[in-house]
Each structure stands twice: as structure tokens, then as C-alpha cells.
Automatic annotation (TrEMBL):
Lineage: Eukaryota, Viridiplantae, Streptophyta, Embryophyta, Tracheophyta
UniProt keyword list: Hydrolase, Membrane, Protease, Serine protease, Transmembrane, Transmembrane helix
Segments forming domain Peptidase S54 rhomboid: 111-247
E.C. designation(s): 3.4.21.105
Primary localization class, coarse: membrane
Family statement drawn from the similarity comment of this UniProt entry: Belongs to the peptidase S54 family.
Alphabetized Gene3D superfamilies for the sequence: Rhomboid-like
SUPFAM superfamilies named in the record: Rhomboid-like (SSF144091)
Top enzyme category: hydrolase
PANTHER family named among the record's database cross-references: RHOMBOID-LIKE PROTEIN (PTHR22936:SF69), RHOMBOID-RELATED (PTHR22936)
The name this protein goes by in its record: RHOMBOID-like protein
Catalytic activity: Cleaves type-1 transmembrane domains using a catalytic dyad composed of serine and histidine that are contributed by different transmembrane domains
Amino acid sequence: MASEDPERARSRGKTYPPTYYSPSYMVESAETMWTSWLVPMIVVANVCMFIAIMFVNDCPKKNLGFEGACVAKFLGRLSFQPLRENPLFGPSSSTLEKLGALEWSKVVHGHQGWRLISCIWLHAGVIHLLANMLSLVFIGIRLEQQFGFVRVGAIYLMSGIGGSILSCLFIQRSISVGASGALFGFLGAMLSELLTNWTIYTNKAAAIFTLVIIIVINLAVGILPHVDNFAHIGGFLTGFLLGFIFLLRPQFGWLERRNLPVDARAKSKYTVYQYVFWLVALVLLIVGFTVGLVMLFRGENANDSCSWCHYLSCVPTSRWNCNN
């Protein structure tokens, strides 16, 4: 799961040196605030999908009783698997696998590349679903209001796919589901948006410090067993690059050029470093996706090229091991 983003100052709070400043030039930003509808629709779609999963799961009929009785039997065929089998109050792994969970062998040998996308819409249980959807509401709605549904939707979907690719390259003996990769993409995009639009924000140090702490804490949770941190990392890196591409803001001097003196007006809509970030991010994104997909469909195991990378997703302790 991911966490709420820090409070960030808007460009309307930007102040200029005394030469350029006068009360008549401090006007409201001309940026458009969008109405958020895509993120709520994604939440509804995930909830409906989970209900459909539980309907197909049909614990009362299919549970053999080896792990105990179904939980919340009053829900009928929507009741959950025994907690010893699934402590997140959800379906069986076989149901998730049948409905599109990410599984290396089926993607590579079964030619089911669609699982790179379908797994984003599946969740392992009620707890998993609530954690992800609450994070999506807190982060996604604000991003959509600022940047619109097209850019936010593209970041969500592509980050989810990026997380699926990295997960599939490193985790090849178990299934993976969840929207966490897409949510970490939002965190990555927020960080790159702050960096590429650095000049229009106040309280920069506090904003970036808070955001980095949130990211580090969430990635640290991923080293626990049964958490797919490779999906988190892949989604974060994809979203980080996409933020440089999709979330550029014009310079303050460009937005308010009609209200500023001639010598204070920006001559270009974006700064040089914004263009550089955009180009580098685009190249890295294309190269990363190309290399990742080629390695994946050739059946390569990324652990063979990085003997220590498995520690990024699970660190063994005296309380648990990471063999599965």
C-alpha cells in the first residue's frame, strides 16, 4: 500500500524579488482545477471486481475443510476462505490464479501477457483492498484534480504494468495481485513532479523530506514476507519517470506573463532543465520497458543477474524465512 502525499505549496504563493514584486502582480494562478471522476471509478471497479472474485470463489461449496471453516458464513458464497489459508479475508489462491493473477509460468510459457494488466485489478482480501483503495483516494484524487484524468490514468496503468514486469522477472514461484504497483507509481510521479517544477513551490525542503520519508517507509514494509516489493519498486520507478514526462507545470513567469512587467516575463513556457528531464525520462522509460519485456518473454530470471536483489522484497529473520 501507499500513504498520503505531503502538503505542497501552489504557485500562487510564489514571491519574486523586490524589483518584480508589487501587489498588482500577485494574482491567482491560471491553472485549471479538474473534477476528479476517474479515481472514484477505479475504486468502484476494484470493489466490484473483488465482489465478483468472491462470488466465483464460493467458499461454502469449494472449501474442503483442511484449513478450517469458511469465515463470515452469513455472506453465503461471498464468505471468505479460512484464516489459516488467507488471513486477509479473501479468496483462495487458485481462484485468483484462475481470474488473472500474475504468474510467471503462465505469462511466459502460457503466452498470457494480459496477466500483466489483469493482476492490477485483483486483491487478495478485504484488508488488502481497503488499504490500497484508501491510499488511492488520498493520493489519486488530488493528483487528478491538478493534472486531469488522462495523465493520471496513464500513470496509474503504466506504473501498474511496470510493477508487474519487474515482479515477474524476480518472483517466479508464486502469484501476485494488487494495485500497489500503480499506487507507488503515484508516489514516484509526485516526487518527480516536485523536482521538475521545483521553482514554483515554496517550502521545498519540507515537501521533499516528507515525501521521501513516506516513500521509504512504504518500501520498507515491502521487505516483509508475502509482500511483493518488486511490484512496488517497479511501479515507483515507472511513475517517477512518467512524472517528468506528464506532470510538467509552466514557469510562474509564463502563467502570469500578462500581469508582470516586460522584464519579469518568462520567454519560454518551460525551463531548460524541464526539457532535459523530459527527454532523459522518456529514453529511460522506453529502454526500461523494452529490456524488461524482452527478458520476461525470453524466460530469463533476473535473480541470475542480481544475486542480492531478492533481499529487496524479503529479508529473512529468526521469525520468518523467504524461501517461498
